[in-house]
């Protein structure tokens, strides 16, 4: 229900639409699936590893902050690389394959 109202607001209001068309939000939209797929493995490996590594020698809040920062950074970098090297080429290949079966020219 909330998604319906958000889409309606974006489509109906040019100001809100322009806010959602910024380069940063468009990039996050393209990376969203890869971020979704990678965030849990990165959190469980990098995030926990950084927390365990620094948790005993530092204040726990600082260790948690380092863990959070490293998780976000690694997730974003890996997501960007996976999008460029895996997701985008797979989309291009799927489009080429579908062109064999679907006539996209208007008659």
List the helices and strands and how they pair.
Elements lengths: L1 H11 L1 H7 L2 H33 L4 H40 L8
Describe the structure.
The longest helix has 40 residues. This protein has one domain. It is flat. Helix 1 packs across helix 2 and helix 3 packs across helix 4. The chain is mainly α. It has four helices and no strands. 85% of the residues lie in helices and 0% in strands.
Question: Which key features would you list for this structure?
Answer:
107 residues, mainly alpha, 85% helix
Short structural description:
By secondary structure, the protein is mostly helical.
Mean pLDDT: 88
Q: Rg from C-alpha positions?
A: 20 Å
What is the tally of helical segments?
4
Shape: flat
Which structural category do the helix and sheet elements fall into?
Answer: mainly alpha
The biggest sheet amounts to: none
- Number-wise, the strands total 0
Strand content: under 5%
Spans of at least 5 consecutive residues with low confidence: none
Number of domains: 1
- Element string (H = helix, E = strand): HHHH
**What share of the residues lie within helices?**
over 70%
For the terminal residues, how far apart are their CA atoms? Answer: 38 Å
């Amino acid at each position: 229900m909330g998604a319906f109202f958000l889409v309606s607001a974006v489509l109906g209001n040019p100001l809100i639409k322009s806010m959602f068309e910024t380069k940063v939000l468009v990039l996050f939209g393209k990376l969203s699936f890869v971020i979704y797929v990678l965030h849990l493995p990165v959190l469980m490996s990098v995030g926990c590893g950084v927390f365990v590594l620094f948790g005993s020698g530092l204040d726990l809040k600082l260790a948690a902050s380092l863990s959070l920062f490293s998780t976000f950074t690694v997730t974003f970098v890996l997501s960007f690389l996976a999008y460029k090297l895996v997701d985008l080429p797979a989309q291009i290949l799927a489009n080429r394959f579908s062109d064999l079966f679907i006539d996209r020219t208007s008659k």
